[in-house]
Amino acid sequence: MKIKNPATDEIIVALKPDSKAEIGQKLAMLKIGQKDWAKETIDDRMSCLVRFGALIQENLQELAFLLTSETGKPIQQALNEIKGAHNRIEHLNAHARHWLSKEIMVDSGGTHEQITYEPLGVIANISAWNFPYNVGYNVFLYALAAGNAVAYKPSEFASLTGQQFEFYLHRAGVPKNVFQCIIGSGDVGQLLLEEDFDGYFFTGSYGTGLHIAKSVAHKLVPVQLELGGKDPLYVMEDVLDVKQAAINAAEGAFYNNGQSCCAVERIYVAERIYDDFVAAFTTEVKSYPIGNPLNAETFIGPLTRPEQLQVLEYQVADALAKGATLLTGGNKIKGKGNYFEPTVLMNCHHGMKVMMEESFGPIIGIQKVDNDQAAIDLMRDTAYGLTAAVFSQDKERAMLVLEQMDTGTVYWNCCDRVSPNVPWSGRKNSGQGVTLSSQGIRAFVQPKAYHLRP
Ligand code: NAD
């Protein structure tokens, strides 16, 4: 499997994908290791994960370089991701003991009732490339903390980072028969579906997620899906500073080249500020430094997957044919690498693909709205349900909009953010199940009810 640098098209290295036999051997080994790992105290398990976190931070520069080389993520954003993901470890370390301890529900009268939380066993984590630290940690660290063993299949576009997770987890004291990295593309992911895992935890596209859920349904094991989005932002006319609102919105749409599951993917703007907002937004986007992702000042690097270039070209052509106005960008950048110009389209409507289908790239559609109800109707008009945002000075008015969103997360005066303190979940085609927070840890355990009569 050739690992290509998306900025230069050069082959970095070739890796040997895991075969069916190797996957079987790894699973057999994990089944043995998991039993001992589950018997360790939560303190012992957490100390390994804390050591892992420290090792990652000690090797930050080298790991960021690797992430940039294989995904094209601008180096500053790679550093931000690796540093930022550490908050999962701090949060887990502060709370996991409490979350996983026995709960005594009744301790009087004739019957004593309590709940204990047991690990699922050996889980498969099939993951995405866009934020491998964030989405990886959300699953495998919580699973390990709860006493599970993990077969982690990084995306074929983040395999080198996946191998580093394995290397540093083992160095931090997580036994080899408790965490194993499985290398390969979709065909190797498919092999995992045929094996006897105790749970499947997937981060990726709707199409693959649906296929996984259908393929493993007969096993009756937990299946969790963190999928894509078409996340709306509504900018009300009362924002304090239109220019600042435009700068913040542009960052929400274009950070990581728009390749974030919770990136702002469509913007609705109140009529009164529409022209000013669009002008400030376009000026901001035109100022983004594009180029070599290893340069510290680069904000827009190459797309990770070359196939996405065609999706973006198609969305632009479709929008222009249906009456959108192109304010900047619109084309693939000639030369080496998967570069696409940051693109802003105005006068968009829901007949256009750019307003309805996940773009996952540096492109945004902007639409004018007359009032809050029109914005609510448009924001809700989607097959996805990951996040939705409102910018406004009026909290009460913003909350009235946010309460009507059928999404797992809503934002007021912010967007494109994830926090370990609150659950992360998608509704409708954005997925099923929850990661992060006290609720996310429950995905990796099964409760056992004890009815005890002394
Ligand atoms: P993808 O679906 O192409 O691939 C995801 C993983 O599935 C990869 O590891 C891939 O090898 C594997 N895979 C592919 N075919 C498979 C099969 N038949 N059986 C088993 N595994 C298979 O997605 P991607 O391009 O890696 O990620 C981008 C998508 O992920 C976007 O839609 C994005 O919005 C979504 N995403 C969602 C979240 C979230 O938290 N909701 C986070 C990050 C990314």
What does this structure look like?
The longest helix has 26 residues, at 75-100. Strands 12-13-14-11-10-16-17 form a seven-stranded mixed β-sheet, with helices on both faces. Strands 7-6-5-8-9-20 form a six-stranded mixed β-sheet, sandwiched between helices. A three-stranded antiparallel β-sheet has the order 3-4-22, with no helix packed on it. Helix 6 (159-171) links the parallel strand 6 and strand 7 (179-181). Helix 2 packs antiparallel against helix 4. It is of the alpha/beta class and 454 residues long. The protein is globular. The model has no long low-confidence stretch (mean pLDDT 98). The protein is built from 15 helices and 22 strands. It folds into two domains: 2-227 and 430-452, Aldehyde Dehydrogenase, Chain A, domain 1 (3-Layer(aba) Sandwich), CATH 3.40.605; 231-419, Aldehyde Dehydrogenase, Chain A, domain 2, CATH 3.40.309.10. The chain binds nicotinamide-adenine-dinucleotide (NAD). Nicotinamide-adenine-dinucleotide is lined by residues 126-131, 135, 153, 155-156, 185-186, 189-190, 193, 203-205, 208, 211-212, 226-229, 261, 358, 360, 386, 426, 431.
